[in-house]
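[Q] Does anyone have a clean structure-token version of this?
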Amino acid sequence: MRTIPCGGVDLGAVDMILTTGLIIDSRLDAGQLENRLVTLIEQKFPRAGARIALRNGAYEFQIPEKFGPDVPCVNFTVEDHPEAYRADPSRPTLPMDLKVPSPSLPSLSKVPDALDQYLRSSSCPHSIDAVIESKLPILYVHVSLFDDLTFIGITASHIGFDAVGTGTLLDAWTRLINGTSIGAIEGMPWDVQPFASFAGPTQITKRRGWFDLGILSQMMFIVYFVWRLFWDSNEYGVFVRVPKAFLEEEKRKVMEELKEKGSGEWVGSSDVLTAWWYKTALGHRVKDRTSFHLHLPVNLRDKAIFVGQSALKIPYINNAVASIPIPALPVKAFHDESLTDLAIHIRHAILAYNADLKGLQEDLHWRCAHPLQVLFPCPPGGEYSFQTNWRTAGFGALDFSGAQVRWDTNQKARVVFVCPVVTSGKNQPMRGSGSILMEDEQVIWLAQVKGAKDWEEIRRSGSIAFV
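[A] Here you go.
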């Protein structure tokens, strides 16, 4: 085995096992999928075939010197259903198949409980301890074949991949499937360590936007957290459907309001979408002064922070993510403030974060010097939320046409939906957080998690239609 230490950036979510589930609107050839992926990992991305080990209290990637039948580079499983998925009414209705009250307005629907059975095999680990004990490759790929659809679940410990890293591997995989030669695909050297320059002691005491709590404050944080779970113990996820035309109209209104105020500022569609979602989800709490701390995970690959003050120039599948802390607001602000003011508040925080490369480097120095130290995303009594933007990973643009069983030159094998599944050995609650999953020509999809009582209050507020 060749070994690479897992750094602080890799260990930000050490207990999380993440599945990126893709639904493709065509029956694919599972043998071709597996062969191309094996070739890609063996020749271009050997780190994807690594095992995770814990030695002397430190996590590390262990990469076999040579892959083969007895030393696989991926756990690849297939389940074949020789009929159409939609032919059996007992199967979960897919989110894109639901009849919504008004196609031009946002709506949400509960995540089907049984959908993950088509994305994870029974052998798929649900905790980091199970990953380590298995001594098997970090990457698990499960394919469920139907006559009209193919489900592909890509599962790995979050130690090994972030969303953009997964997208990087899948983009190379689909290019190989569609006829690009393996020699034309740029790979990731097995020994690359872009964050090694941030290792070593530092005088920085914590990361920006995070809280280093004393023992008493930690106890108070836990008490508040457990109380919220006790008060609303039934937690579940929903998919949120946001028509692009609706979002563009909301952005147009925001830009028009800024212009009327004499401001030359600009906001992006993601700023407006994020502001709209929290205004939708929290706007009914009109008197709640609880401090709300929003964190936006951000891809570091394009930041000029690496050796030579340059961006990362190679395709990198391991974690390269930090989080932008948005200055806290009282929850009631999402009722009181306009969508324009909230979107500008988010945009200002992003601009300030991106402009302060020295501060970002100091954050990374702290993270790499304290890889397993726990900081808290908000003070005791506050609320926090992480909102990840998976659109950067480009899952919705992946093209699996080269693996179609019935080749049709007039129709591509498109990704029609992206479905995340998260597990943890410590039953890590995802409450209040979510992701912008994907976009197609007409719709942007989000996944969000809250308690059942929260969802019921949102439903009663009438801020969004429930399907």
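[Q] Thanks! Anything notable?
[A] The two ends are 51 Å apart (CA to CA).
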